[in-house]
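Supplementary notes for students who missed Thursday's class. We covered one full example, reproduced here. Read the sequence, then the structure, then the short commentary at the end.
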Amino acid sequence: MDTLSYKTLTPNAQSVQHDWVVIDATDQVLGRLCSKVAKLLRGKYKPSYSPNVECGDYVIIINADKVQLTGKKWTDRIYLNFTGYPGGQRELTPERLMQKSFNKHIKAGKHPLFLRVMKGMLPKNRLGRKLINNLYVYNGSEHPHAAQNPKQIDIDNLK
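Structure (token representation):
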């Protein structure tokens, strides 16, 4: 019996194929959408998934301004941030973060609401900080990544 046939192949950074994916966020619930996007960023939908390797896809989310939140979460949910100074606890609501996304000083593709939600769904280590840079979120239906030939997928078909 040949023992070479039983070797487990693990993907490394050179052997992983990264794809570009476009997702339309129109009338999607924010948390449910982001949990599927987190799986895409990690690469969990691929057969060559490895938990310690960046094997996910690059994700472009368009129409982020048309995302939904259930109930009164737009105003009642509070995200806390601490500056590190005495009395430096800041409160933000999803409504305020959505308003910030229209600010022209925010870097293109970096939507504050989506980044806040996605950071909580990714690993809290070097890999998670690397994966969050593979996410691009735009309020309108246009994006500047046409040169990468992204493919449009329906997020409702993913589990």
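Commentary. Helices lie at 30-42, 73-76, 94-101, 112-121, 126-131. The beta strands are 20-24, 58-62, 79-82, 89-92, 135-137, 151-152. If anything here is unclear, bring it to office hours.
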